[in-house]
Every structure is written in C-alpha cells, then in structure tokens.
C-alpha cells in the first residue's frame, strides 16, 4: 500500500466522487482558484471545471443553505467551510434545517450533504481560529459527525460520507494534513459507528479521535516501556458512537481515559464517561478520567497554547495515577 | 458514472393562467379554510403557533397561478395560503394542523412546517429568512441539472434585515440562479413597523442594489400579482437570473393568535379591509357580468363545505403512533 | 412575601435596573411596541422611552454584536433574543467575540452584557422552536449560563447578572412564565455557582434546573408516598456549576439522576454524571442516570412531544429501579 | 441612580491633520515594520498567521490621521498598519507578534488580535465581518452617552458578502449611528476576485442602497484618503448618521505568508506596484521641493531603527508565565 498524506487521502476520495457521480459537486470559499485553504482541492477547478467546483462568496450561511437546498433536490453537494470556527455562521442552517428536514417532512425530504471543515488547534492561530466544537454537532440528532485520525480513516470515511443519505459533518484536524500513512489506491469505505482498536492493551483504555488519538498512542508507547499496557481506541465517528467497542474495551481493562483537544466542561468526553459509568459500572476499578483542553479561550503564545492542550505527559501522569 | 436523474413532480407546463373565477375560488377557499382554523384553534383542536394569512390571499393565489406545477415553492411559517394555492389537499393540511398521522407532514410538522414533495412544495419554515438559502440551493440544483424549473421563495418584510436575505440575494445574482423572490410586505414584522427597522422602506429597491430585476405590485390585486409573476418567472426560467417582486399587502388578523395588536390602530386595519382582495375581485367580476350574487353564494357554499370536510377529516384521523417517535431521524440506505 | 409570576419577577429585576443604572438599556425584537414576545418588557417602552428600550430589526447577529460593542464602551446592555433557537444566528458573536474579548485583550476589555432568551419545549411549537441548547453555552469558557427555575430564582439571578462583569447567557423557560412563587418586593441577589437544595432527601439525588426541576420535584413527592426519599437539587447556574453541592448530596444519598429537557447524547447531563463518577466514585451505589429528552427533532403532535420530553413517570420508574 | 461616566482616552480634538511629511513617515514606518515582520516570520520568530498590509499603507495612514485620538478603531486581522497609524508602540506590537508578555495583548492575541484600550484601538478580529457589529455597538454607546466620538470600522472587500455587513449597515442607518465604515477594496478576498463573488463590484454603491452617504477614493493616495475621511467623519460626528468610504487599493504581498498567489498574474502585481503609495508621495514631495533624497534617506534610517529596535525589544522580552494561562477568562468584581 502506498504511503500518502491525510490531505492526499482526502483528495483521492473527492476526486473519485467527482469522477463517478455527476450529482456530486463542491462549493466553498477559495476551494478553486486559490486551491483550498488547506490545499485539499488544489487543481480540482482546472480538472473538473466551474460547474463541479464552485468558489463562493464569503457567506457561510447561504453557502451551506444552498448546499442543503441542492441536496433536497437530489444532488450530493460537498460544502467546505475552511474551519469549524466559521461554521458558527452557518450553524443555524445545519441545526435548524439540515438536521431536521427529514423528520419535519415525515420522511419526504432527506438531505445528503457532506460539510467538511478543519478543527483543532496547535499552530498558534489564536482564540478565534483554534476551536474544537465537534461536541456541539455530536449533540444534534439528524447529523452524523466524522472525525478521521489517519490518512486511511480520511479516505475511507469520506467515501462513506458520500454514500450516506443524511447530513454529514466531516471534521478534519489542521495538524494532520501532512501526516502520513498507508492507504489503498482503490476506493474503499469505512463504516460509521465502528471504532478501531488502534493498539491492543490490557491495563487502561485510552479513547481518542482525530488529533487526540495520536497523543494517546504516543503516551501508550511510552507507558509500554514502563510495563503499563494501554489499549488505544480510535472512535472515527462521534455520532453514531461505537458504544459497544468502548464498553468491550473497558470491560477488559477496567479503566478508561478520554483524550480530547476540546474544553473539558460540557464536552464530548463527559458523554463517554457518562456512558461508561452507566453501562460498565461494576467493571470500573477507577473513575473514568478526561485529559482535555484547558478551560480558556486559546492563547496565541506557543507555550501557553501547548499548556492549554492535552499533552502526552499529562496522559502518562494520569495513567500512572490510575494503575 | 452515476448521472443525474429527475426526482420530482412531472414536468409538463401548466395549462395557462387560470381565469379570474378560478382565482376568486382559491382566495375564497384560503379565507374560509383559515377562518375554520381560527375556530378550531379557539376550541383547542389546533395547538402551537397559528399564523393566519387572511388579507394576503391575493399574493399566494396570483403568484402560484402563474407558475408551473413543478416549480419549487419554499415558504415561511405563514404558509397555509401558499399550500392551498399549490393544490395541497385541504384535508391533509387541516390534519397537519391537528397533528394527525394523515397530515401532509404526518403530524410532525404542524402549521409552520407543511411539506408535500410530490407537489414540489418544499416546506414552510419557522426561522425568519432561514429558508432563503434553501430556495437558492433548489434553484442551483435545477440550473446544474439543466432543467428550466424555478424556485419561488415567499418571505415577509421582516426577513429583509436578516443577514441571510443579503447572502441569498447576492449569491443568486452572482450565479444567475433561477429564483423568484417574493416578499409579502404587510408593513409589519410581528409588531414592528417596517419604517422603524429598515433603512430603505421600498424593499424592491434593495433587491435592485444587487443588480436583480425587481418590481413592486399591488398585493391586494390578484390579477396584478399573477401577471407580474408570469412576466418575472419567465425571465428566471429563461436563465436571466433571479427576479424579485415586492407585493404590498396587509394581514387583517394578528401576527399569531396571541397578538393583542398594540402596535397598530383599528382605523388602519379598517382602511385596509376596504381593499380586501376577495371583495375587490368579486366586485370586478360582477361589474363585468362574469358572475352574479348567486354564483358567489355557490362558490361560498363550495368552500364552506371543503373547510368543514377538512376539519371533520382531521377530527376523525388517527394520531401518529407513539412508537413512530424515532422514525425519520435518519434515512437508512434501506428506505427508498 | 407577595406571590407573583416568573414573568413578573423578571420584570421587577429589569425595571429596577432601568431605574437605578443609566448604563442599562434593553434591545431586542418586539420588546417595545409589541410588548415582548413573552410580555416580559410590556409597558417598558412607554415608561422608559426609546433611548432605554430599543426595538430592533430582525437581525440577531448585529443586535447581539452591537450589545457587545456597547458593553465594551462601558454600558450594560440587556439583549433579548426571544428564543434560544434564534440565538444560533448570533452565536458567532457570543462565542467568538463576547466570550473571548477579555482574554484576547489581556484583560483590557470586558463585556458586561446580559443576553436573555427563552428555551425549552412543551407547547407544540415544532422542531425549529423547541430546543434546549443551554449545554452548548455552558461549554464555553468566558460565558456564564443562568437557568432560573422559579420566580424567586428569576428575580434574584437576573439582578446578579447585571452586577456581573462578564457576558451572561440568561435562559428562561417558555413553560414557566406563568408559574407562581413568593418573591420579596425589595431587590435581592442570588449568587452564581450556588445550587439550592429544593427538597431534602436521603435515598436518591435528583438534579434539575429550569423546567426540569419541577418534574423532578413532582416525582419526589410521588415517591415520598412510597417511602422513597429524594433530595432535589436546583442548579440555578450551569456555568459556574456548584460541583460541591452536587457531590455533597451524592455523598449522602449515594445515587443520582439528572433530569433535563435537552437531548441526552452530548448534553449537560453527561457532564454532571462525569463529574460525579470522577469525584464521588466510591460513594456511588449505582451509576448516575440521565432522564433526558428523546434523541429526535421535536415533533409537533402533542403526544409525541410529551413522549420526547422527560416525564414524572420516567423519573419515578428510574428511581424505583435504582433503590 | 448610577449615571454614565466616560472611560476611555482624553477627548481633546486632534491637533489638525498632520502634514504630508508626517504621513510619509507613518507609511514608511508601516512598510519597514512589516518587512521586519516578514523577515522574523521567515526566521520562525513569529508564528501563526501573518497578514501583511504592504501596499495598503495609504488607507490606514490617511484615514487615522483625519480622526481624533479618542475615536474608536475596530479593524480586522490585517491590522498592523492601523495599529501603527494610531500610535500603538512598535515595540509592543512586535512583542505581541512574538507572543511576549510585553505585547499589546500580553502575547495572548497575536498578529490578528492587537488591542490597546488606552488608545481607543478596540482590536483586530479574525472572523470576517464579525467585528462590524462591534463598531455599531461602540458607536451606539457614544450616541447613548451623548458624546461626539465616532467608531471607525476597517474591513475588506471580502467582508461585503457576509450577512453581518448587511445587518450592520442597516442598523447603523436606521439608528443614525456615528460609524465610519471604511472598506479596503484590494480586489481580492484571499484568492477570490471580487468580481467573481459580488453582484455589484462598486462597493460604495451597496452602502448607498441603505441610504448611507458613501464615496469612493484612491486608496493609493494618502492625502486623498485623509481628506475624504476628514470630510466624512465630520458628518458622522455631527450626528448625520453613518458614512461609508471605499478605498481602492492593492496588497503587494500574498494574503498570508502561505499564499502561492495562483489567482493573480505577476503583471497585475507589477502594474499596481508602480502606484506604490509611498513612492507616489515621495515623488510629489520631492517635486514640490518639500523634501529631498537626503531627507528621505534620513526618514528611512529612522524607521529602520524603529523596526530594528522593536524586534530587539521583542526578542529580549519575557514570555507570559505559564501560570497566567487561566487569567482573564472572567473579570471578577475585584479586578478594577
Ligand atoms: C431568526 C428569527 N428571529 C425571530 C423570529 C420570531 N419571529 C417570528 S415571525 C417574526 C416576524 C416576521 O415578520 P415578517 O417577515 O414581516 O413576516 P409576517 O409575519 O409579517 O408574515 C418574528 C420576529 C423567528 N421566527 N426567527
Ligand atoms: C467568517 C470567516 N470566513 C472565512 C474566513 C477565512 N478568511 C480569512 S481572511 C479571508 C479573506 C478576506 O478578504 P477581505 O475581506 O477582502 O480582506 P483582505 O484579506 O483582502 O484584507 C477569508 C475568507 C474567516 N476568517 N472568517
Ligand atoms: Mg410582515
Ligand atoms: Mg480584500
């Protein structure tokens, strides 16, 4: 299997869709002439033309809303929102229209749209450009929320997103675009709602997704040297969530830590902890812990930013305190 | 490669603009149907918010009469008139207001969320201006497919100050989308007079600022509305880009059933009632000798019966089963 | 103490502020000539004039943003957003500006704004008008989130909101405006971050807020007849959260159930469960449970809507299964 | 009853528009300062996004020279020029770009978020158009207090299609808020040419659609900008409501340091470089015999030194202590 980047993996899925399904078209700010703010769609305008690859005005709300409308009419739009921070300007369309139409219309109208955006922090972009709001989208019935952690995930999950009949919020991580991994050249699909056992272990379950999976995995490597065996789970999708895989792992290890970039209070880690203690109460030898972002707007200074994000060392400390 | 297939209603062109008597009948139906709604709301048979269209019948009736049956309609929460004018079954609309399984939205939508995909009626929406981007998207899809369907978007004067109004008009203009924007300027957004919140009161001028062809029409005159929409939709259908129509009208009832109407005078309401679109057309048709009192009475009897029957149908219809609570949250590959 | 409604209690606090602090002014859609969509500001335009009571265009984003700007300049605006559903159109202003300005400016600029909105469901307003998104706001550092359950809470917490130097999201419940309770005529303030023991008990802790407090309280009454003693906590504010009070109660009862109108998955109940299992792990005799709204967009039909909301009977069933 | 107190900078009127040499010096300072920023970004001393203002110096310099020192300034993420023109210390701006405790925002803001309340510089913002409502609010507050301060709002051509642009212009017009809107039309929003995304390319005409007095000016001519802003801000200050100025300009560098500039031709950039606002003014002043090559060299040496010193100050400044991570999330009654 060729080794390619997360960015290239996303490009392969998008090109495949553009080549094989005329209902698919892409819309977004600077995805064409500029090549995409994270270069995911670079060259697509030249290759597929303006009908399939549309540069839009800086108007998040109407761009997402128009994507929803086009999906209502039977097309399969992919809207790129640059970053999750800007999605707040389109969130009314996502929550009040996209997520509710199939239900409100009693099954008459569904909305097969894929909305891509980059989340996460770590490159000193400041408070307004460094948020991880996936927990908000994961809260909304009617949406599906996808959080790929590797190039293999990125291609396989994006392929699946286009097969889905519902609105899919596809959240990439700004720090992962250049990360590399083995990815099959032929198209393949990874199911939503199925987590991956990224690393097998017996003492503690570390639950991560997107960027945080890698901190968890690195911590697990370190801890292995100390003879502590961590099982690392890669969630892949937050909604649907693979509760079975989480519980199966915790029943084995009896301990769990959720790792997430996002603010802890009211975040997704709380949901996972709540589920584990509800369904694996008697299997737990210790409370489920969360290694999350600090409860602050993201500071620009590099050292402060790192201090505000979960670090390998934090996870290691927590695990040591647990076993 | 999967190529594009049409999903919706049959394409056939509409059989020409209906005659004035047909327009009168539709307006009378809307009026009577909503009077019945008010009656049933008072009796507690209809719940939630109920926004009556009474007074504005000429806009929906004239506009939709000028469209093709497969042209999309996207409306807001004051949409009973648009739904009836498009030909949704009165029984199923009333059943929806009652929250019954036989309703157009299976009782899940309610008064503000009527849907009938078969009739290209793409919904009523309750977030002011939140439906405007959807109309752009439906139009974009038809442009993309190469069809000549247009998307017609009804909204109120209050929607004009929302950011989405601006974003939608700009996008439609830049991409030459086949959207027919129709603003029903009834002078108030809830209790707020347009002059108190809009920098420019003539809404059609705002549309012109985007280079969109925009006109103003007497929204109390159904024939004038029909002719304006026929003319404007032709442009949009021909690929000349979006068009915009401001219909000057007035709602005779409160904003919703809860409205105490502190913000406007009885006189003002009375003055507008003299312009009642139904009375106007009845007089004109009578003067022209097209109809007489007897014919009007017959029409009245006809719509009375439809409204009565609709209410009875709704009363006798079953509620959606509780077990259906979790249906239609997600569409599975299985559900065709 | 006179018995007044939740609406009247809110009116008393607003009138007091308008009378005693010239920096305070009110802005919102239909708060003036119309009298307020929930009649909270009825008569204020006549009493205080257009300078202090401003009807706005239907432009949530600029109305909230202008409130933030006015607060930056030293005034104390109260912006009314009618309902939490419409706050999605202003959420970029709340999250990207209001919550971050004090931090990004290194303490130079704070934002003392009060943003009122009605949340909750139960009156058949349909999917787009029946949401409870308080968990989203509670997730954001820099914001304070207030959820009054009684007329006494409503007045005392709103008074405190105007003393606060930070952005306060004040969420009322549509079903409570006509509820009655004893409220002192003189001004008083209730601290943020202090929960109320609404009812003392020993067997199970029921945690509620805003509308859900009352289902919890009614369930507690029923259960008392069966000899099951429930302690009922009224959170009053979600951010800051009175973790101490929650833990103290659970350490006594060893069991807890969170009651909330909102969707369970990714909601605030998960945060509370996560906190309890983390800090009172050994005190728990059973997993913390959540009695929440169903994971669906809100249906219009009355029976379906009630089925989608937590009911007294559901709480009672859960408690019985727990003790 | 608590009555209103003024919080901000002293009110005194500005000491008249500075002479052309002062304008030249400011533009040269901005240019040199940003060249230093680019140098230090390349060296990895500055991180995150860096958006250079090079080419647009005449707009910030001319506009702010025409204002009172206590007039509010609200800018976007391309705001180094506005900050320097308003007189924020070069040392503390550079320190902010370095993320140091001595920075104008204590190292928490970075290039996109410069703040200096003492100088009524109310910030740089990174959400396109998200700062426009704030300018309306600052202006509203001054109108409410009865002061004659104005709020000046800088933004780009790309912001014009956001809903907040529309909502802000409408509110400012309806409430006659003392806002001076200044759009720096540099023809591109990132890589998107305005003609491809805006229904109407002449942005000032869009403002006129709200009944706002709007003009267009040569944004490469600092004197023209200064005079236009002096004239327009006078109207806003007098209570005649908002004003709008479109400054036609061009950015010589990429959108940010990452931009490969696929979307525009070298020729186009070269053509605009011949209109360099600094060269233009240097020629004019030399032709008028106001300055000579020696004076220009002296000015250059002066700004070189300021830029060098700023970088040195930043290099030598301490980082904010890690323990300060949780400071300033909430303001407590204690914090004055
Ligand atoms: C985004 C949003 N803000 C506020 C409301 C509350 N609201 C419902 S209808 C309405 C007035 C709308 O007036 P207009 O657009 O003129 O339509 P009309 O009711 O006159 O037909 C308002 C403010 C809403 N539904 N959505
Ligand atoms: C709401 C939002 N959408 C998108 C972006 C990404 N973005 C940053 S700058 C920019 C272009 C803005 O162009 P313009 O307003 O012309 O200002 P300029 O960069 O030319 O000075 C975009 C799209 C953003 N920061 N905020
Ligand atoms: Mg209206
Ligand atoms: Mg630009």
What do these coordinates show?
- The complex is a heterotetramer, with two copies of chain A (323 residues) and two copies of chain B (336 residues).
- By secondary structure, chain A is an alpha/beta fold.
- Chain A is built from twelve helices and 14 strands.
- Chain A has a seven-stranded mixed sheet, with helices on both faces. A five-stranded mixed sheet of chain A has the order 9-11-10-13-14, sandwiched between helices.
- In chain A, helix 1 (6-20) packs parallel to helix 7 (151-163), helix 3 runs parallel beside helix 4 (91-98) and helix 8 (210-225) crosses helix 12.
- Chain A is globular.
- In chain B, helix 1 packs across helix 3 (80-86) and helix 4 (90-97) packs across helix 12 (293-316).
- Chain B is 42% helix and 12% strand.
- In chain B, strands 2-1-3-4-8-7 form a six-stranded parallel sheet, with helices on both faces. Chain B has a two-stranded antiparallel sheet with strand order 5-6.
- Chain B is built from twelve helices and eight strands.
- The model of chain B is unreliable at 7-16 (pLDDT under 50).
- Chains in contact: A-B, A-C, A-D, B-C, B-D, C-D.
- The interface between A and B is large, with 47 and 57 residues.
- One thiamine diphosphate sits between chains B (78, 126-128, 156-159, 186, 188-190, 255) and C (29, 58, 60, 82, 86, 89).
Keywords:
heterotetramer; A: 323 residues; alpha/beta; seven-stranded mixed β-sheet; five-stranded mixed β-sheet; 14 strands; B: 336 residues; six-stranded parallel β-sheet; two-stranded antiparallel ribbon; 12 helices; 8 strands; 12% strand; binds thiamine diphosphate; binds magnesium ion
User: Of all protein chain pairs, which has the greatest interface, and how many residues does each chain bring to it?
Assistant: A-B, 47 and 57 residues
The helix-and-strand class of chain B reads alpha/beta
Q: Tell me the series of helices and strands of chain A, N- to C-terminal.
A: EHEHEHEHHEHEHEEEEHEEHEHEHH
Percent of residues of chain B in helical segments?
A: 40-55%
| Main beta-sheet strand count, sense and barrel state of chain B | 6 strands, parallel
Bound molecules: thiamine diphosphate, magnesium ion
Uncertain residue segments of chain B: 7-16
């Amino acid at each position: 299997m060729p080794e390619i980047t997360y960015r290239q993996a996303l490009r392969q899925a998008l090109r495949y869709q553009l080549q094989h399904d005329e209902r698919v078209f892409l819309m977004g700010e600077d995805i064409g002439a500029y090549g995409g703010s994270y270069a995911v769609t670079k060259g697509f305008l030249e290759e597929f033309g303006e009908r399939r690859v549309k540069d839009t005005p800086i108007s998040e709300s109407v761009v997402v809303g128009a994507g929803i409308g086009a999906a209502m009419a039977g097309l399969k739009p992919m809207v790129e929102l640059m970053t999750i921070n800007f999605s707040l300007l389109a969130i009314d369309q996502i929550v009040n229209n996209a997520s509710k139409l199939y239900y409100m219309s009693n099954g008459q109208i569904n909305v097969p749209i894929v909305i891509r955006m980059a989340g996460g922090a770590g490159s000193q972009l400041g408070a307004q450009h460094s948020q991880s709001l996936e927990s908000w989208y994961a809260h909304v019935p009617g949406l599906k929320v996808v959080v790929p952690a590797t190039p293999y995930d990125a291609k396989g999950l994006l392929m699946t997103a286009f097969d889905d009949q519902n609105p899919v919020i596809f959240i990439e991580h700004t720090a992962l675009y250049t990360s590399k991994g083995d990815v099959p050249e032929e198209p393949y699909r990874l199911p939503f709602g199925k987590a991956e056992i990224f690393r097998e272990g017996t003492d503690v379950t570390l639950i991560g997704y997107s960027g945080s999976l890698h901190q968890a995995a690195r911590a697990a490597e370190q801890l292995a040297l100390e003879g502590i065996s961590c099982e690392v789970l890669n969630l892949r999708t937050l909604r649907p969530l693979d509760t079975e895989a989480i519980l199966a792992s915790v029943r084995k290890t009896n301990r769990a830590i959720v790792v997430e970039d996002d603010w802890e209070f009211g975040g997704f880690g709380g949901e996972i902890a709540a589920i584990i203690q509800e369904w694996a109460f008697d299997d737990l030898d210790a409370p489920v812990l969360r290694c999350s972002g600090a409860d602050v707007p993201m500071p620009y200074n590099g050292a402060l930013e790192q201090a505000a994000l979960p670090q390998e060392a934090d996870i290691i400390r927590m695990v040591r305190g647990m076993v | 490669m999967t190529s594009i297939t049409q999903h919706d209603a049959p394409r056939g062109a509409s059989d020409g603009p209906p005659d004035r008597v047909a327009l009168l009948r539709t307006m009378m139906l809307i009026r009577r149907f909503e009077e019945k709604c008010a009656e049933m709301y008072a009796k507690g048979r209809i719940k939630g918010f109920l926004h009556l269209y009474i007074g504005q019948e000429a806009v929906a009736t004239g506009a939709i009469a000028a469209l093709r049956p497969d042209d999309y309609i996207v409306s807001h929460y004051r949409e009973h008139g648009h739904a009836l004018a498009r030909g949704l079954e009165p029984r199923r609309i009333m059943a929806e207001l009652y929250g019954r399984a036989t309703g157009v939205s299976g009782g899940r939508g309610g008064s503000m969320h009527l849907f009938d995909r078969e009739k290209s009626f793409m919904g009523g929406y309750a977030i002011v201006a939140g439906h405007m981007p959807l109309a752009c998207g439906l139009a974009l899809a038809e442009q993309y497919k190469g069809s000549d369907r247009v998307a017609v978007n009804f909204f109120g004067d209050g929607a004009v100050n929302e950011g989405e109004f601006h974003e939608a008009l700009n996008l439609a203009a830049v991409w030459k989308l086949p959207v027919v924007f129709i603003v029903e300027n009834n002078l108030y957004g809830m209790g707020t007079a347009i002059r108190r919140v809009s920098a420019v009161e003539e809404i059609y001028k705002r549309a012109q600022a985007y280079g969109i062809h925009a006109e103003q029409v007497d929204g109390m005159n159904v024939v004038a509305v029909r002719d304006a929409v026929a003319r404007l939709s032709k442009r949009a259908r021909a690929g000349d880009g979006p068009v915009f129509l401001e219909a000057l009208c007035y709602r005779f009832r409160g904003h919703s059933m809860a409205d105490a109407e502190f913000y406007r005078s009885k006189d003002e309401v009375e003055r507008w009632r003299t312009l009642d679109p139904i009375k106007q057309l009845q007089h004109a048709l009578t003067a022209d000798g097209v109809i007489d009192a007897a014919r009007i009475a017959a029409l009245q009897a006809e719509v009375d019966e439809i409204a009565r029957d609709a209410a009875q149908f709704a009363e006798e219809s079953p509620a959606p089963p509780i077990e259906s609570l979790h249906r239609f949250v997600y569409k599975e590959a299985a559900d065709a």
